[in-house]
Amino acid sequence: MRFVTTIAAGLLALSGISAAHAQDASFWDGFYAGIHGVGGGASADKYFTATGAYRNSWTMQGGMLGAHAGYNMSIDAFVLGIEGDVDVGSIIGDDAGNGQSLERLNITGQGSIRARAGYTIDQLLIYATAGIAFANVAGYTEDSAVPGLSAESLTRSYSGPTVGAGIELALTDSVSVRGEYRYTALGRADFAWANWVGATYSLHEHTARVGVSFHF
């Protein structure tokens, strides 16, 4: 919530919003598309695939660039809609060689399909969002004592629920800017390493997003 409050203060200062300049709720009706930046991280939990026993955890950090598109309809001051997005970049981290092997995971791409529901106050839309997310994750492992020895790379697909909240500010008759927090439980995927014990990695992602949208 601190992130949302900070972004709200910045956007309000940028626009010089005042109660005397109310935004018609119909501004939000219809199709829109835009671009955004993503920053944040994820936590990776490793389990042995054969036994399900927990092994260790580590963090991942990085950023992405993406595009989004959606459709809104307003009912008085309420706004309902659906939105999809796609991001590419890198959210990466490794276990620092905790054991005989070093293991690294890298979220290289992700996307989501979500519902949005919000309430407008003047030019500001305050909203919540929820849906399903998908991610492409590249895994890499090698001997922790001899870099490059017994190195392997595998790629797996992840999916799971995503929820978040944000604010969006109408700047002109067709342009808005937004700030959003999102939590995504990407679930688990098995990595059948040829040279190492098979592992299952569970991923949980926390991201902040800032973007601009163009309304049609």
Summarize this, please?
The chain is mainly β and 216 residues long.
Task: Give structural notes.
By secondary structure, the chain is mainly beta. Helix content is about 5%, strand content about 70%. Strands 1-2-3-4-5-6-7-8 form an eight-stranded antiparallel beta barrel. A hairpin with a 7-residue loop joins strand 7 (about 175-190) and strand 8 (about 200-215).
Distance between the termini: 30 Å
CATH C-level label:
Mainly Beta
**CATH-defined fold name:** Porin
* Category from helices, strands and their pairing: mainly beta
Put simply, the count of helices is 1
User: What composes the largest sheet?
Assistant: 8 strands, antiparallel, barrel
Sequence-ordered SSE layout with sheet pairings:
Layout: H1 2-15, E1 30-48, E2 54-75, E3 78-94, E4 101-121, E5 124-143, E6 152-170, E7 175-191, E8 199-215
Antiparallel strand pairs: 1-2, 1-8, 2-3, 3-4, 4-5, 5-6, 6-7, 7-8
